Predict the structure.
Amino acid sequence: MRITDNRYAGELSKFDLAMRMIQHEARTGTIKACTGFSEDRVRKIYSTYFKGENGLKVRRKRGKSPSQITRFVSSARRQTEATVLACLFLYFDLVTLNQRGRVMRNESIDMTTMGQRLCRAYENYLLIQPDPRLSFEWAWNLYHCLAHNHELYLAWCDDCGSPYVQDTYALDYRRCPFCELADQQAAGQKA
């Protein structure tokens, strides 16, 4: 085996990540942040492999990635989905919890590895969520709201002890959306 046999491995893993993210309808800026590719290169990959007669049909959204947090905490169902995704971030070692239980980004991984793990977490979210409401870009936003901006955090339910995504600046009743949904279903059955 020659030393040069592995010289393109890093470039190939970035290319594979770009292809994977395009399939998840990630925006150009998101792909650029994870791969280090230029915007022009991302667009060329898209036009070569995803446009035209032989390409896979993938919609591309334009503009900046979403940055609001209300989508994650506006209802018990959305809060549940955000919690599932946040737990997958923990499972795939995208984020860690510090001594105070706050979510921190995993400093030991590079951006390409982070992008690959984010894709795996999102793909597993799609498998376990019956009717997913969060797109890949919303998963990217959730990651940043938890690990970078700290606008969201993981709180712990007083009733069942489960973690749940909570707005940092909102009043926390220390009750997870799972318990809320269970109460709503029980009230619906009594009526």
